[in-house]
TrEMBL record:
Mitochondrial membrane ATP synthase (F(1)F(0) ATP synthase or Complex V) produces ATP from ADP in the presence of a proton gradient across the membrane which is generated by electron transport complexes of the respiratory chain. F-type ATPases consist of two structural domains, F(1) - containing the extramembraneous catalytic core, and F(0) - containing the membrane proton channel, linked together by a central stalk and a peripheral stalk. During catalysis, ATP synthesis in the catalytic domain of F(1) is coupled via a rotary mechanism of the central stalk subunits to proton translocation. InterPro entries: ATP_synth_F0_dsu_mt, ATP_synth_F0_dsu_sf_mt. Its main location: mitochondrion. This is ATP synthase subunit d, mitochondrial. It comes from Apis mellifera (Honeybee).
Length: 174
């Protein structure tokens, strides 16, 4: 991990994807991020090199320069470990898989709807259609006296079930 990772932010791509109501917050965040980046870039990436031989010659106290040299070389400034990139990458892959499955599902729905649309386009226009044509196209919900005779008002509740024996008690009540 180095400073190069911080230079990879594509602010224009982010700006295109957020709603206009959030652009002021993004601008404030970008400004703050740029200030932090500018402060960080003011410092060198590596510790400055010290001419230890010069100091050994000029400082009289024995062992002082060697002590500072050992302590200086032992300095290790830890860079924060990256705990989030792997999680973000796995989440991105998971979301990409969900998007692909959604696209496939929608494409299958589009194909099904396109078939229905083609069927409707190839149908006889309603202005030229007869009741028999409509009955052939839409068998459910149409009156088909040749197959299932019904009586007025032609609703399911009003129809007598053929083949069922009449209850003699009902005849007495009528």
């Amino acid at each position: 991990m180095s400073r190069k990772a911080l230079k990879a932010i594509n602010w224009s791509a982010i700006t295109e994807r957020i709603p206009s109501s959030e652009k002021a917050a993004l601008t404030a965040f970008k400004s703050k991020s740029d200030r932090y980046l500018q402060r960080m870039m003011a410092y060198p990436e590596d510790l400055p090199k010290i001419d230890w031989t010069y100091y050994k010659k000029t400082i009289i106290t024995p062992g002082l320069v060697d002590k500072f040299y050992k302590e200086y070389e032992a300095i290790s400034i830890p860079y924060p470990t990256d705990k989030y990139t792997q999680a973000i990458d796995s989440e991105q892959k998971e979301i990409a898989d969900k998007i692909q499955s959604f696209i496939q599902e929608v494409n299958s729905q589009i194909a099904e709807l396109q078939q229905n649309l083609d069927r409707i386009k190839n149908m006889i226009p309603f202005s030229e259609m007869t009741m028999e044509d409509f009955s052939d196209i839409q068998p459910k919900g149409t009156l088909r006296p040749d197959e299932e005779p019904t009586t007025w008002p032609h609703t399911e509740d009003s129809q007598e079930k053929f083949g069922e024996k009449d209850d003699p008690k009902d005849k007495d009540n009528h």
